[in-house]
């Protein structure tokens, strides 16, 4: 299968990649294998390390599941590949001050004077180890080296005919705002790249994330969210004139800003998930189904009007987005809630006895990774629900009433003497297959849940 290379730039890029991983785990259909590539000089960024851990756990689960034309399971069906041995493309020489990076002291007096005109003293003394801290003028200089990096050449060497590229970045920071146009220029003009003709002629899309959060004011920080709008306007003016070589360009943002702690980077930069990142991830799915056009196609994601502070639900999504996300995300919530609330009873089911789901298997690494991933999925949903613009798709506290899970939806009655988790168990017991234990576990839950969603009209 062809590959979709996704370049996630900066903190927003990492968080959107995590949201995409959750959607793929739920079974949202993508027509390509996914190759995530994180571009962020801040290797210790907690959002980056969290995303990498999520991607690795997804891979650990998926590699033990088999798929063929007879299996119905859609959980974890899309292959996520790691061509860089860690998903991250490092930038060399960023563990220093910007003045050292440009060798300010070694420049001629005239060039020193020019540099001091172009960059403030704060810019020149900026420590780049945690990124560019809202300064795209620094970022564009440093990011210009990306095409010379060994791992970038590894990406280019792996590129094949029919593969696609998608770039995720914010427009109001430093790393993303500078990295996006430089990457696009590299793909379209750098003839020294391996497989340049294939990359140059490939379909390339991107999503530019407009301001959707702010940070606390701090005199000790280089990040000032009061400049986010002016930086966005400047970047948009530049994009309008200089991004004619892109096939699909998506925009998204939100004017209901949560206020995050002002952390310049490192392990303290661990922002809660935001529904804008989920919607940005859905743009990647949309792009996987597009065809190359003669001119740039621009897309904005719209929703039904909602009042300030009102929760976002499936009802507020446009029809295309609802049909893309509703059923897969509901399946995975039901799966996660079963594992969280009722899994201690699973070993006693006739399915478990027939399939020999013994204690060694149920406490082994596959089930352990699955439990951790599903717990993270619920936590991800909870974080979006608690944000300033709440995303409330599900009743995550439905307890022993598993089918009361979709917000605003009353489950339909079914003809059965069983209800709640007893009904769930009976559906699991009705599944039989000759698959491996790992594949059978996933197949049984998918088939049972899919049938329950249809019958309960969730």
Could you give a quick summary of the protein structure above?
The protein is α/β, with parallel strands linked by helices. It has helices spanning 10-26, 46-62, 98-101, 109-118, 121-124, 136-143, 150-158, 175-189, 196-200, 228-242, 275-287, 319-341, 350-355, 359-362, 365-386, 420-429, 437-456; strands at 3-9, 33-39, 164-170, 203-209, 214-215, 248-252, 259-260, 297-300. The relative contact order is 0.13.
- According to DSSP, the number of beta strands is 8
Low-confidence stretches: none
Basic shape: globular
Helices and strands, in N-to-C order? EHEHHHHHHEHHEEHEEHEHHHHHH
Arrangement of strands in the largest sheet: 2-1-3-4-6-8
Number of helices: 17
β-strand amount: 5-15%
Distance between the termini: 33 Å
> Whole-number radius of gyration?
24 Å
**Structural class category:** alpha/beta
Classify the helix fraction into a percent range: 40-55%
Tell me the major beta sheet: 6 strands, parallel
Mean pLDDT: 84
């Amino acid at each position: 299968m062809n590959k979709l290379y996704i370049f996630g730039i900066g903190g927003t890029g990492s968080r959107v990649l995590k949201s995409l991983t959750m959607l793929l785990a739920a079974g949202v259909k993508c027509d390509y294998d996914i190759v995530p590539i994180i571009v962020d000089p801040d290797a210790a960024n907690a959002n980056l390390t969290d995303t990498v851990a999520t991607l690795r756990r997804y891979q650990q689960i998926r590699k033990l599941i088999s798929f063929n034309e007879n299996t119905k399971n859609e959980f974890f069906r899309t292959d996520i590949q790691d061509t860089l041995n860690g998903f991250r493309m490092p930038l060399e020489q960023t563990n220093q001050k910007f003045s050292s990076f440009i060798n300010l002291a070694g420049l001629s007096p005239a060039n020193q004077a020019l540099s001091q005109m172009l960059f403030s003293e704060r810019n020149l003394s900026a420590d780049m180890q945690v990124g560019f801290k809202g300064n795209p003028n620094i970022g564009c200089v440093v990011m210009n080296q990306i095409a010379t990096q060994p791992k970038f050449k590894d990406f280019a060497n792996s590129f094949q005919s029919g593969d696609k590229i998608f770039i995720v970045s914010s427009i109001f920071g430093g790393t993303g705002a500078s990295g996006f146009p430089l990457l696009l220029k590299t793909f379209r003009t750098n003839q020294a790249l391996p497989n340049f003709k294939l990359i140059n002629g490939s379909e390339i899309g991107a999503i530019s994330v407009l301001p959707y959060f702010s940070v606390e004011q701090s005199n000790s920080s280089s990040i000032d969210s009061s400049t986010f709008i002016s930086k966005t306007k400047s970047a948009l003016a530049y994009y309008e004139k200089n991004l004619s070589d892109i096939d699909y360009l998506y925009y998204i943002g939100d004017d209901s800003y949560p206020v995050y702690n002002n952390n310049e980077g490192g392990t303290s930069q661990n922002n809660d998930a935001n529904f804008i990142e989920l919607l940005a991830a859905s743009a990647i799915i949309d792009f996987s189904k597009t065809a190359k056009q003669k001119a740039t196609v621009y897309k904005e994601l719209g929703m039904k009007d909602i009042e300030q502070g009102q929760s976002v639900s499936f009802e507020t999504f446009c029809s295309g987005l609802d049909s893309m996300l509703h059923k897969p995300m509901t399946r995975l919530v039901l799966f996660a809630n079963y594992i969280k609330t009722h899994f201690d009873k699973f070993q006693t089911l006739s399915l478990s006895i027939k399939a020999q789901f013994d204690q060694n298997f149920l406490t082994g690494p596959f089930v352990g990774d699955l439990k951790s991933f599903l717990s993270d999925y619920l936590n991800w949903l909870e974080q979006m629900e608690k944000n300033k613009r709440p995303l409330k798709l599900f009743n995550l506290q439905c307890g022993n009433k598993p089918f009361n899970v979709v917000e605003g939806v009353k489950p339909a009655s079914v003809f059965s003497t069983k209800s709640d988790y007893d009904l769930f168990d009976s559906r699991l017991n009705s599944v039989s297959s000759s698959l491996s234990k790992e594949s059978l576990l996933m197949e049984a839950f998918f088939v049972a849940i899919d049938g329950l969603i249809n019958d309960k009209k969730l």
